[in-house]
Amino acid sequence: MLLACVQNSPSSDEFNAVVGPNKDSKVDVDRNKSLDSTDACETTRAFEKHQHLTAACYGEVTERQAAAMEDEQALQLLVPRVKLGAQGLEVSKLGFGCFGLTGAYGTALDDEAAAAVIEHAFRRGVTFFDTSDIYGPHHANEILLGKALKQLPREQVQVATKFGLTRDASGGGAWTPCGRPEYVRACCEASLRRLGVDCIDLYYQHRVDTTVPIEDTVGELKKLVEEGKVKYIGLSEASPDTIRRAHAVHPVAAVQMEWSLWSRDIEPQIVPLCRELGIGIVPYSPIGKGFFGGRGVTEQVSAESNLQRHPRFSAENLEKNRQIYLRMEELAKKNQCSPAQLALSWVLHQGDDVVPIPGTTKINNLDANIESLKVKLTDEDLKEIASQIREEDVAGARQNTSFAPTNWNYADTPRKQSC
């Protein structure tokens, strides 16, 4: 029965027929018209019908329960699909960052609870899931995502993971970037095993190794693409020069950078370069690591959270940054949404080539993030928000001290010596 269900899953073409390609999307991102409610309902109803019948086939719910769930969810917004960059990669307009599932910002979820969050995201149309080989203890995040993927139709999911950071054997030292070709290959093979997949859809260099010419690192990634182990390649926190040189060796599909209302340093150089080269932009921490959701202001930062060591979340800086949050609350009231939704909507409005990857451990927050696609912002709204929430007013650096040297500003690599 299980095999039959998997075999009856829709192909990518069938999925596109249900969801629709990006050029026909009416969701209000990058100043397009809002999604027509009738089209949204029809799209969601068709997609959910397949999902609930599949669940019934697995024996998880009865057909009557599936029908009831279908009626309840038919009115929900389904995340549209977009082209990420010019290389052909198609993903959901909103991705899901898996980092927090294994305890980055608080208590880790168990495998069952994490899989439920991932499955719920998929049922709402999120198909782009982001992880890394350093997330969680002993690669726990990749392993967790791999288990969750077994419950989803693989051809409808885009998996992104990363390599490029090493630590000493004790696990207590600082992270050090590594881009040696043999390391790239070893990491890829290990991630494939942990994820339980034959091919990684998008494989990023997590941080740039400034001791190795980027041509050597990307040259090995190109081989992995040619061998069918990787579909598309990406870079994270790479400098303009590194991006351009990498792209000359093999087309870069996406660049992952921190981008939010309080982290905007990529706008003068990185964003225009990506658009010149046809590279998609994947903003991580688009809600300011939860700040615009009230973390550190309306709710305490967990004692287990990595943010305990983050400059912007220190007691002194939080007191200063509180004023930014209060201004955001007023703007959110004006736009009839929550501060977190307004922050995410602002990022979503930066362009069709922008696919943010907010993460959460709570399904309610996940639904709220998806509903941010409904927030309509005019050019004047965007200007007002940017003028009220200014990066120069933020207290504290955007990265921990240990990670600051790996920021894109310092990510040039040596020139490759010609023979």
Describe the structure.
This protein has 419 residues and is of the alpha/beta class. It has one domain (79-410): NADP-dependent oxidoreductase domain (TIM Barrel, Alpha-Beta Barrel). Helices cover 39% and strands 11% of the residues. The strands form three sheets. The chain has a seven-stranded parallel sheet, with helices on one face. The chain has a two-stranded antiparallel ribbon with strand order 1-2. Strands 6-7 form a two-stranded antiparallel sheet. Helix 3 packs antiparallel against helix 4 and helix 5 (111-123) packs across helix 6. The chain is globular and about 55 Å long.
User: Roughly what is the average pLDDT, rounded to an integer?
Assistant: 85
Please, how many domains? 1
> How many H/I helices?
14
Instruction: Please bin the fraction of helical residues.
Output: 25-40%
The first-level CATH class name: Alpha Beta
SSE class: alpha/beta
CATH architecture: Alpha-Beta Barrel
The major β-sheet equals:
7 strands, parallel
Classified in CATH, the superfamily is: NADP-dependent oxidoreductase domain
Helix and strand element order: HHHHEEEHEHEEEHEHEHEHEHHHH
> Could you tell me the radius of gyration in angstroms?
21 Å
Number of beta-strand segments: 11
The low-confidence parts are 1-60
N→C terminal distance:
59 Å
Which topology does CATH recognise? TIM Barrel
Strand order of the largest sheet: 3-4-5-8-9-10-11
Short description:
This protein has 419 residues and is α/β, with parallel strands linked by helices.
